[in-house]
Write a sequence for this structure.
């Protein structure tokens, strides 16, 4: 994580999380170890045990990252009314259903109830803030603060302003996420899916295509990725990787030498859809692989591996 986990620049401030699901609960864990007061708002009658279970499962990994996890849950509370949840918020992190109409109606209500200087951020995977803010009076206030799952571990937050967002709001959002240990990056232009998810969607489409064609099973595909691209791209992204792949001639030589066959390969990439046959195949293969292990056990293993990668990379960077 980019800051010392002993730093607590936002300690004591209130973070209101709208939606206590997969992402909201993970955000709650990270906000809590940063000593924020966390209010989770969600109409689900089971939201409290659901969030507390995910927070409890996340804390050991956060301790491995250097956070003090002692008694952090004392700062966690729940509120079923979204407007009531945000009245003292420094930050509102929206983590509700990925539906434009839901987010549009929500931001109208949140804008009326939250403090005028509260940070209003959507976790949305794909919906730009300029689609979400249509019912807001002051449209300069909303930004996307898109995390990668799980937000309590994965460093990236894509901060995506709209053309109406003030530079001050963008700067405040970047400062907040970086101040709680994330790696916040401003995405300069709105586009559906932003950057990371567009890359992920391209790769996942080809992944689904390869499995649907019987080239590999879904766990074999994952094994290929984690033993190649996963390691490579954790250390050097697509462009640096191919710059190095070009040898002393760098990316220029890579493109001259291997550009034409890659362009040809682009013509052969597959298409995929979650049609009934594909869903049945994925479900059947899932049942024979990941489906035999609980969500929490899989998450615990994932967290341990991600912490090892994050700490390992941090150690190399610190020694550089
Ligand atoms: N799951 C993922 O891998 C990621 C999801 N996201 C984004 O985060 C957001 C949430 O996604 P998930 O946590 O995966 O969904 P989820 O389905 O796990 O959680 C959504 C939560 O919203 C609650 N909810 C429904 N109506 C509500 C309302 N009126 N007020 C308050 N809460 C309400 C539900 O009860 C549920 O707990 C989406 O915008 C998604 O695109 C972003 C990054 C990764
Ligand atoms: O993969 C992630 O963690 C995020 O980038 C996502 O937004 C979700 O996977 C999903 O919504 C991709 O569309």
């Amino acid at each position: 994580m980019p800051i010392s986990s002993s730093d607590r620049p936002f300690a004591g401030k209130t973070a209101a999380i709208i939606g206590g699901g997969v992402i909201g609960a993970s955000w709650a864990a990270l906000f809590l170890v940063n000593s924020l007061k966390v209010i989770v708002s969600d109409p689900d009658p089971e939201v409290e045990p659901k969030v507390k279970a995910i927070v409890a499962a996340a804390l050991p990994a956060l301790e491995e990252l250097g956070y003090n996890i002692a008694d952090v849950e004392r700062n966690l509370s729940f509120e079923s009314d979204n407007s009531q949840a945000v009245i003292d918020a420094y930050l509102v992190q929206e983590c509700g259903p990925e539906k434009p109409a839901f987010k549009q109606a929500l931001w109208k209500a949140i804008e009326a109830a939250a403090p005028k200087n509260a940070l209003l951020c959507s976790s949305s995977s794909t919906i730009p803030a300029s689609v979400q803010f249509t019912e807001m009076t002051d449209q300069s206030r909303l930004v996307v603060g898109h995390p990668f799952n799980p937000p309590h571990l994965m460093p990236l937050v894509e901060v995506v302003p709209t053309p109406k967002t003030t530079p001050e709001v963008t700067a405040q959002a970047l400062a907040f996420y970086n101040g709680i240990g994330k790696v916040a990056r401003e995405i300069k232009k709105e586009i559906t899916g932003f950057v990371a998810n567009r890359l992920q969607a391209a790769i996942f489409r080809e992944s689904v295509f390869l499995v649907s064609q019987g080239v590999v099973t879904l766990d074999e595909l994952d094994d290929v990725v984690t033993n190649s691209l996963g390691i490579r791209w954790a250390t050097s992204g697509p462009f640096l990787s191919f710059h190095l792949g070009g040898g002393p001639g760098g990316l220029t030589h890579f493109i001259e030498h291997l550009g034409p066959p890659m362009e040809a390969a682009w013509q052969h990439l597959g298409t995929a859809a979650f049609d009934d046959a594909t869903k049945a195949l994925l479900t059947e293969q899932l049942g024979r692989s990941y489906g035999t292990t609980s969500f929490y056990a899989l998450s615990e293993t994932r967290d341990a591996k991600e912490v090892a990668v994050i700490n390992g990379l941090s150690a190399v960077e610190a020694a550089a």
Summary: The first strand starts at residue 14 and ends at 18. The CA atoms of residues 69 and 224 lie 35 Å apart. The chain is about 50% helix and 10% strand.
